[in-house]
Amino acid sequence: MASSxxxxxxxxxPAEARTSEQEYTADQWVELARVVAERDAALAxxxxxxxxxxxxxxxxxxxxxxxxIEAHSLAELxxxxxxxxxxxIEVARNVLVFAPIAVTWYGLSTATDAYAKLISQRPDLVxxxxxxxxxxxxxxxxxxxxxxxxxxxxxxxxxLLIVLSLLIHFRIDVRDVALRTRVLLxxxxxxxxxxxxxxxxxxxxxxxxxxxxIDQMVAEERRIYExxxxxxxxxxDLEATAKELRAAAADLARxxxxxxxxxxxxx
Length: 267
Hints:
By secondary structure, the protein is mainly α. The protein contains eleven helices and no strands.
């Protein structure tokens, strides 16, 4: 049985092995095109044409299509899922930045008009503070937002801005850090696939083109490793800082306890 298996392996010619490898590589590009099609139809078409060129061994087309693929952009497209809710939150935050100012100036505008009308009708109220009259609604003037109501609305808008900003920064500073690492890993995979694709569709004279891509892939792997080590160092520094803060808090607690005991003894 072993001899028959060895005979089958020997019976596979280099051309057949190369064709099989081209089919496998083309299938990988087809799968990428299928995933990308949901987000970028034009890029999916490019990837599909590259897969077809790999199957048919059109070397010039393979090199042309492969050169048009930007590995980093493709990796970001595959990893990042730009949800509609995230875009809505960013737009809402950017628009609401001006909302407290607009509401405040609208309230001031209506308040000053109502104050002028009230003073013209009742000059005896000129000695009363403007803010007090405003809080009282200028004797129930129509269309006037009371001062306390305006303050609550402004505080609510500012609070909403804080919440939206925290959501956005949490996404960028916490979650997106892990996503960026995944982007780097996916970019490395794509560069490797591009290099392998070019090596399959190149003559010996064209090997430098794929060698350049392989060198880029190695450099990318090194960059990923360096960034991972840098993040590990940051985590270590944060843990050390947390320990120092806990120790300082313990010292403060002991100092407060000793002060409390000293006061009790004086009494």
